From TrEMBL, chain B:
This is Transketolase family protein. Gene3D superfamilies: 3.40.50.920, 3.40.50.970. Transmembrane segments: none annotated. GO terms for molecular function: magnesium ion binding. Its cofactor is thiamine diphosphate. Keywords: Thiamine pyrophosphate. Coiled coil: none annotated. Residues 34-198 form the Transketolase-like pyrimidine-binding domain.
Amino acid sequence: MTSPATPAPERILRLREAAHRIRQYALIQAEVQGQGYIGQALDIADVLAVLFADQLHLDPLDPESAERDRFQLSIGHYALALYAALVEAKVLPAEELQTYAGDDSRLPMSSMRTYTPGVEISGGSLGHGLGIANGVAMGLKRKGSERFVYNLLSDGELGEGSTWEAAAVAAHHRLDNLIAIVDFNDQQADGKSTHMLSMEPVTEKFEAFGWEARRCDGHDVPALVQNLTALRESTQPRPRVLIVDTTLGKGVDFLEAREKLHFMKVEPQEWALAHEKLAQSHRALTEDQAR
Amino acid sequence: MTTPTSTPSPTPTSTPAALRSGAMSADLAADGQRAISAPLGHALVAAAQRDERIVGLSADLAKYTDLHIFRDAMPERFHQIGMAEQALLGAATGLAMEGFIPFASTYSVFATRRAYDFLLLDICEANLNVNLVCALPGLTTGYGPSHAATDDLAILRAAPRLTIVDPCDAIDIQQAVPQLAAAEGPTYLRLLRGRVPAVLDEYDYTFELGKAALLRDGADVLVVSSGLMTERVLQAATALERDGIGVAVLHAPTIKPFDEEALVAQLGTGRLVLTAENHSVVGGLFDTVARVVASRGLGERITPIGLPDGFLEAGALPTLADRYGVSTAAIVERVRALL
């Protein structure tokens, strides 16, 4: 298995800036409510930046274009991360983030297909996304489309049996236009995923199901670009999955250290500090790259 | 298109054979009854020939839901998902999102009890044109509660945007299929499979999605019925007519959205009113009718005929139909007792 060449520094810098903006947008929304799935939004920001600013074929003027790659968020509680990515992709206006989870908002706390432009599926109940991705992948093939369907799921979601039904169906039907991404942050509602219902070794499980599987650090932007590019360019007649190891609250050190990580409450006086810590860690990262 | 075959009933011979449970038998029609074979499968092939968006899916039960007719006629339009009902509804969802019109088949119990979350959130919320054609509604198998969908209407009536059809016979099924495909949102058909009786072609009747039809009029009794119970009610009405009892039969194959006006037009005449359904008396046609009557402030008393609020026993279908009061003879007896 060969990997594409290391991406150019300017490309990486551009994607790190995108990830930083996604994190900022996530904090802006979360502050409106004072709480939410903030840790998850921060942990998946690098992946979403690489997808929405690099990998996906999207038309911001026509989010339902037949020529788009389909991006499905199976984990509906990551909605604020998706809304942030859709702002970054210019599908949603940044001002709308202030309406997050409010009355009459198009941005409900859990993402819903019919509520928000650019949201492909309703994901609040877990274990649905991969099965729908199968049907979309079948439909794209029926139409002779070259486009891909991406499905973002979580390690906790691997506990849902329906995910493995879908994994078997995808492999059996050789859906090589399907790329799943598993956010492995090792956290779910009651605690650490690996302590409750460990699905490790995840890479080997997908491989045993007939998938082409890779795993990398979900905050390593060059590795994300290389692995996602490699999966897309693979010539194997198999569905593909990238497992990304991530840290909840990534980029805001005092949130990373919280004991209650799954659904976070942030005190009013903490938001300014959160933005500051985020800016600090972004500076450190980009200065590190510049050296 | 298969045409109905008319064969006279065979004369009973000396000793009747022991009643078999009929658990795995695909045929609903009695020996010698006028019937059409696999009406769903043939109607779907005909509809798909006219509309290239139609695709078929099954979860390991194509042969037992008559979808094998479609599979064999149009193999390139068929997706076998395997024994995975949640994945079945997921794949149907994705295909509908890409502009196709999926007909997905399995047994009713598996689509409803097992995969309801997927039906509700993926298909109904998005109002996708996914059509579920699901076999073994109510008491159509002697296999027992694991396979008998006596509760599917109760479960599904609460699903927003879902159209629910409970056909009487092969005619209803054949005429419903193109209308289900043409309807914008999701639909659920209570499928009768195998050799399915042909009944309604003897009446001035055409299936119309969302409409109920008065099949016959009568001065003494009104029966609102759906599904295969309409055939039994019609037979009961003929028997009661010989005693001078006039029975009107309002066939309501669309359970949701329900044709309230057709029902209300028949009420208020002082007739004995009954509902007849191949479903638990909880949550199905009786509740649908009672809800209309109550919400409109009408004071009609309505007597339900249906399956009990319990787990059905296994056994031969005619035995069970008698035991639970849903056979033709039981309907006749019930009406006489109530008059």
